[in-house]
Amino acid sequence: MDTILIEEPISKITITPVKTIDTFDIFEVQPAFARFESRPALAGCKSLIPGDCDVICYVVYEAVKKEIPVKKIVATPTYSKEKQRGRFKTIKKRVILTPATVREIEIPAEYVTIQKRVLEKDETVDTLEVGAVVREEVMLVRDRRSSGGEDGFEWRKIECELLDYNVLPIYYGFNSDVLDAKARSVVEEKLYNLMKQRPEIRIEINSHTDSRASDDFNQGLSERRAKSVVDYLVSGGIKRSRMEYHGCGESQLVNHCSNGVDCTEEQHGKPDAQNFGYPK
Q1: How far apart are CA 231 and CA 79, in angstroms?
Q2: In 3-state terms, the chain is what percent helix, strand and coil (to 5)?
Q3: What fold, for 164-269?
Q4: Are 222 and 247 in contact (CB under 8 A)?
Q5: Are residues 52 and 175 in contact, defined by beta-carbon separation less than 8 angstroms?
Q6: For residue range 175-233, what is the model confidence (pLDDT) as tens digits?
Q7: Which end of the chain has the lower number of beta carbons within 10 A, N or C?
Q8: Using CA atoms, how far apart are residues 269 and 280, in angstroms rounded to an integer?
């Protein structure tokens, strides 16, 4: 027979819960702020441009506060600790009279023949350099049927970048199609010299406007702007038959100032950084 401890002594803890009361507290749900706001147009303003006579005011808004129900603690939780006695049990157990012994028995080994794969050469990576693929474009430059050529035409290579729209950074005055000195310098540098040196090249000029004024007015204005570039090149000796022009109006804006969006004069006149690069 033997007496063993089956439950060790423990401490019993009794918890007194927290006590609260229902009340109200005031919280700020929206901070005070100020901003510029647009107000109706001044009386007597005769401008036809939308937003031209609006008044910009600096408006201050007070903070918004709200009374919200809360629970407040009036008594924090506590606990008490009481020592408990352990538990014992008397049991009947078996004891060894004769210790266990060990016998060794030799078991003959068994062999079997199997096939296995062994590594002769590990996987490797070979690098092969592949040269760039170059695209060449050719274009018809003039009729040579009178020369007795095999196909009657002469073909020449042309740079691939000349086949895509390229930005011509010209900025016009408000509602104007006149090329100023800076714009004429851009035309000479980007187009005139190229067309003089390459008489086989034909070009297409597309022009744009901002969103102010009506769609029809802006369409006509953009066409006149494109034509002004063509006229300037013709005045320098470039044949008009080598050029065509189109007006896109406000259909392809390169800034965020579309119809109904309030923008400053500077914002209307400049493209957004993420949009700049679209053909002008």
Answers
A1: 96
A2: 20, 30, 50
A3: 60s Ribosomal Protein L30; Chain: A; (3.30.1330)
A4: yes
A5: no
A6: 889 999 999 999 999 889 988 988 888 889 998 888 888 889 989 999 999 999 999 99
A7: N
A8: 13
